[in-house]
Every structure is written in structure tokens, then in C-alpha cells.
Amino acid sequence: MPPRDTADLAPPRGRLRRLARSALADITPLRTSPHYRRVWFGQTVSSVGQQMTAVAVSVQVFALTGSSFATGLVGLFSLVPLVAFGLYGGAIADTVDRRKLGLAGSAGLALVSAVLAAQAALGIQQVAVLYAAVALQAVCFAVSSPARSSMLPRLVPTEQLPAANALSTVSMNLGLTIGPMLGGVLIGIWSYQAAYLVDAIAFSATIYAMWRLPSMQPEGERKGRASVLDGLRFLRDRPNLRTSFLADLAAMIFGMPRALFPAIAVGFYGGDARTVGLLVSAPAVGALAGALFSGWVGRVNRQGFAVISAVAAWGLAIAGFGLVRDLWLGLLLLAAAGCADTVSMIFRNTMMQTAAPDDMRGRLQGIFIVVVAGGPRLGDFESGTVAALTSPAVSVVSGGLACVAAILLLTARRPSFARYDARHPTP
């Protein structure tokens, strides 16, 4: 038999293209919806700018005070208004034109960044100004974010929501990975005001995208005012949506060893601050990879089971991280955890957007902000307390296993969540 030509052994180009399309993030929402395309681009640019500002604020506070405690207070001044106003931002989004609310919030964020640039240029040496600016940023974000998120089901068809949520995750993680690096470069070459000024200018992309949107009045029965308590009552009586929030809390409270990274860097790997940086970055890298290779999510109908599997995978990866002592293997496990978190987030967002009525989506997004902001802080407390009573290794391993146990318990209590079918969304 004559030898076969090697070209015959190569996969056809069409097959390679199909494989690439099925594996890589589905960009159909970007191709088919001009409104979504502009919003996505604006959010990506502004997310990078916001992360630049976050780095600049922390560096400037430390330069002014020389205190790690004062630098840590930046997070507190951001967290409190984020939690306090997140719920009310969601309630407002269910009663007004969401386009106008998102536009006002983006303009407010741009204005605060401009004020930060001005104070840096004028040499105002007052850390209180920075704390106040951070708090105002959190208020603007908490008020406008539920409006922007609840718009999504009006920008793309229902069948494209998983892909759109995956692309939104790409946007967020691009900001988390690129923003701090660019912020550090700008601060090093010029100064703080350069990072603040670029952030203020970057918001023009989001403002333009919001400006081009049509009116986004909430649909359904609208009242003169939307009650936060009504949103909580709605969630109480919707077991599938409630379980999706509890699943995220289980992952963040029990399986988030972020507060232990400095101790782990030294105790596990004999490293230093650079090792801590690698540990912090690894989940974000994994999350970005999970979003980039999310072409398959649109073919999944058992979205509740997908959330359960992703949260369990997160817990197992974190538990494995607590057992290994090789740095690169540890980073790989943290990246795997970040990838699992992205999968969970994509399906939880999709469930919330399809199973909830339009006039409740703002309030649910407000609750989502509180969970996302508060869960990791509770996780810091839990992991730090267990580590103080035992050891960092015991804290990480037990937290990961507790996360798996919690999601299995939730599944046993709410078997309907595992059976949730995207073709027949039931809240």
C-alpha cells in the first residue's frame, strides 16, 4: 500500500474552525446586538480604568500614611456603602428608566475619578479626601450596577444570555488582570493623577454606550416605589433562585482563603511578596481562561446542576491547594478554582435573568452585589479564625471540604435546583 500523504492526516480546516467555535467564547451577542456590543466595550474599558484607580488609591494612601492599616481602610470605606446602597440601587432600578440610572451612575464615577486626578495634581495631602472619594465611587457603582445588569435580557435574546454573561465575565476579568498592571506602569512613569485621569476618560465609553440605548423602563406591574423588602420576600418564596445565592455564599465563606495568602506564601513555599502576588492573581487568570473557553455554556440546559458541579469543583480545588507544597501546582489549583467560579457565575446570572420577572431583576441584582461584596469578607474572617485556632493548612483544607459539604446539603434540601431546566425556567 503506498504511503499516505501527511496532508491527508491533518484535520480539515472546517473541523478545526468548528472545534474552535465550540470551545472559545461565543461572540454571537457582540455580532448581532449593537447595543450590547457598545455596552460590553464600554464596561471593559471602564473596568480597566477602575482597577487602575483602585491601585492608585491604595498606593497613594500608603505613600501619605506609611500605614498598612490606613491602606486597609480603603476596602472598608468601599465595602460599607457598596452593601448599604446595593439593595436600594436595585430597588431604584425597578422603578425608573434603567438607561438614565446607568448613565447617571457612570457620569458620577467619571466625576469622582476627575476629582481624584485634580487632588493629586494639586498635591492635596489629605487621606480623608481619598476615603471620601472611594466611598462615593462605591455609592455610584452600587446604584448603577443593578440597572446595567438588569438591562441584559432586553439587549440579547434569551438563548444568548449564557454567552452574554460569559462575555461579561471576560470583561470583568480583563479589568482585574490588565487594570492593576497598567495602573502600576502609569504611576511609575508619571504619577497618581495619570491613572486617575485615564480612568475618568475611560468612562466616556460607558457613557456613550448608555446614551445610545433606548429607554429601559421596567416591564410588568410597576408601583410608585419599589421596596427592598419586596425583593427579599420574592427571593424567600423562590427556592431555585434562593439556592443559587446560597451556593455562592457557601463557596465564598468556606472556600475563600484569600486572607491566608501572605502566611501561605511564606509557610508553604518559603516565598515573599511576589509569591503573594502570584497567589492573588492565579484565580483571576483561571477565571479569565474559563470565560474565554466558554463556548459550550449555551448548550447546557441543566443550569442548576452546572452550578452545583462548579461550586463542588471550586471546593475540591481549594482543598487540594491546602495539601500541596509545590508552588506551580498550587497556582494551577487556584486557577482551576477561578475557572469553576466563572462557570458558576455564568449560570447563576443566567438563571436570575430568565427566571425572575423584569420588574424584580433590579432588586435581585442589588442582593447579588451584597452577596458578592460581603461573601469574600466573611470568608476572610472564617479562614483567618480557623487558621488562628489551628493552622493555615487546616483552614484551607477544611474550608474547601466544608464548601463541598454545604453544596451537597443544599442539593439534598432543594433537589429541584439540580433539576432546573433553562428551557422551562422556574424561580
Element layout with pairings:
Layout: H1 6-9, H2 13-23, H3 28-32, H4 34-65, H5 68-93, H6 98-121, H7 127-155, H8 161-189, H9 192-212, H10 228-236, H11 239-254, H12 261-267, H13 273-292, H14 303-323, H15 327-355, H16 358-389, H17 392-413, H18 415-418
Notable characteristics:
427 residues, mainly alpha, 0% strand
**Helicity range:** over 70%
Structural class by secondary-structure content? mainly alpha
End-to-end Cα distance: 63 Å
Estimate the global geometry from the Cα principal axes: globular
Which stretches of 5+ consecutive residues score pLDDT under 50?
A: 1-10
Report on this structure.
The chain is mainly α. 80% of the residues lie in helices and 0% in strands. The protein is built from 18 helices and no strands. Helix 11 packs parallel to helix 16 (358-389) and helix 11 (239-254) packs antiparallel against helix 17. It is globular. The N and C termini lie far apart (63 Å).
